[in-house]
Design brief:
homodimer; alpha+beta; 3-stranded mixed sheet; about 25% strand
């Protein structure tokens, strides 16, 4: 019997229809053609093919915008939003619009063209996580912005247009719906029970264990109770924290360990799938970054199928793999 | 300058970033391999390859579950939901679930394997629209259901697994989020202004004209002000009506004309793109089907790109084609 499950935070329903497909090998992954380094704008030596760098971690004293970096952040050459200008909010009859003001940055995660995020050492991955943090701290100062979204498209099927490993950061003048829904749902839970729903989830998942993928002292990686997609994973800090960039230093090492283990388990179970990664942190630009009801978290979606009319029309998802069996497969894969 | 636009019904923001791509020919369409009729379970003569028919339009007195039909409705052989059983709602700690009870039907739109929905005559298309209606009227009687979603995936890239033209109907025991958001947004507008937001949109779009794709006496086809995707279209009845299946008979002819014109314009502008179609009508199973604040409508999304981390993480969409230029292209294509 298929099962309907409700996301405890935003109330989104999913259909867990395990009759349709069951095992990782039922999801054959199409791999990208190996792209050459000759024309890659993210490789060392090609620094002049990107806009000037906003941040780079360099060993020794190599000059900016040249080789010698381990992580490098640059503005996106084809930004979805423009950094200069005023919002200029307007009504057009019924409709509302404003100028597309925002920042759109690219975090080049490694100088090596052929290494994926999952291939980095824990220390190298931690440097990427700290670069995200550093850019968020800087952009949060801009009073025009309300939200900073870090995300990553890995593999062409997941929307990556360049093969060289990178993530992106978009600063937005409004809080996006997906995050607003999470915060509103979490606030309702908090008002009703005086507890953070994410803290409750950490507790229930650790007690139950069936959906746990990996854990360390500070972080829990698990398949959510009502996942939209097969092998969808979520990483939550065990201790309450609403803003990613306000964590303690050892937290970044803990996250690097948990994220690395999860990515490597997905690679092992699903033969290096394309995926999307999204970081949800508290909105910026408000009085209070320290929300008692919201946890920052990382969402990971392996790209194994396509979204079609039913999902677009309903916001409901049909998932052929239960999170319990996905987590069981992932637990068995050595990172 | 890119523009941020807000959907007037649900408040979803989109980025209209026209710097990135502009013309229909910037969206090359990958066509499916022609699939043979030999193994097609939807072709006449193969009626025994589907579950027994729920409805068929037949000229003359051909027997059920054999050839002679023009439109045929059957249960999905691989249903996402099961028709038999009780909902059996349960809590699991924090979480809610219920049995996956529902109906999942397939509407085979034509006996001819190689004709697409857009290739049907207006009368043939009207018969499909009436088959949707007839199945909705029947399923609305089942007290377990709260929502009936008709949708169509055309082309493999849009999620179709069989080439023979068909649409689907899923009956759900809960109102899906996407529809709930629309109804809640429309209710807020109604409470504030005592007018239906969809009626307001019809008025503003007809006055403005820039986003109109096609119109006839009863229907308006247009590109919405804040579309998620390039060449996204919406078809609205000009006169207020909340439930699709409660329309007057001539309305189905009017919708057939407007839908056919829109599909043929998309075919002409975008070289027969894959697409998703979704019908949003008022929920069933409540006291009142006649909502003063909600219009039923058809959404059409040509499948031209893929959704990636930014969209998944934000619910925000980056659209490289403004609805004004999409509508201008579509108006010029003869249906």
């Amino acid at each position: 019997m298929p099962e309907l499950r409700k996301d405890p935070i935003i109330g989104r329903w999913v259909i867990i229809a395990t009759e349709r497909a069951r095992r990782p090998q039922d999801f054959p992954v199409q791999h990208d053609d190996a792209a050459g380094t000759a024309t890659c704008p993210f490789c060392p030596g090609a620094e002049d093919k990107t806009p000037r760098e906003l941040l780079a971690y360099r060993a020794g004293h190599t000059p900016a915008n040249g080789p010698g970096w381990s992580v490098r952040v640059v503005p996106n050459r084809y930004p979805a939003l423009m950094i200069e200008g005023a919002l200029d909010k307007k009504g057009v009859g019924l409709y509302d619009k404003m100028n597309g003001i925002g920042a759109h940055e690219v975090i080049i995660e490694t100088p090596e063209h052929d290494r994926a995020l999952a291939d980095l050492s824990a220390a190298e991955l931690e440097a990427v996580l700290r670069a995200w943090r550093e850019r968020m701290v800087d952009l949060a100062r801009d009073q025009r912005f309300r939200y900073l979204l870090v995300f990553k498209n890995h593999g062409r099927a997941a929307g990556a247009t360049l093969a060289h490993s990178h993530s992106q950061l978009i600063a937005l003048p409004v809080v996006p719906r997906t995050v607003k829904n999470e915060i509103d749902g979490a606030r309702a839970h908090y008002e009703h029970r005086d507890r953070c729903v994410f803290c409750d989830i950490v507790g229930q998942e650790l007690d139950d264990g069936a959906r746990v993928v990996y854990e360390n002292d500070r972080f829990l990686s698990f398949c959510p109770f009502a996942p939209r997609f097969p092998f969808e994973c979520c990483i939550l800090p065990k201790r309450h924290a609403s803003a990613y960039e306000l964590m303690d230093r050892p937290d970044y090492a803990g996250l690097a360990d948990a994220l690395r283990a999860t990515l490597r388990k997905l690679d092992g179970a699903l033969d290096h799938p394309p995926y999307n990664l999204m970081l949800h942190s508290a909105p910026v630009g408000g009085a209070d970054r320290d929300l008692p009801h919201f946890h920052w978290h990382v969402e990971l979606i392996p790209k194994l199928g396509s979204v079609a009319g039913f999902e677009w029309g309903s916001g409901f998802y049909i998932n052929p793999v239960s999170p319990e069996s996905a987590a069981e497969f992932l637990r068995k894969v050595s990172p």
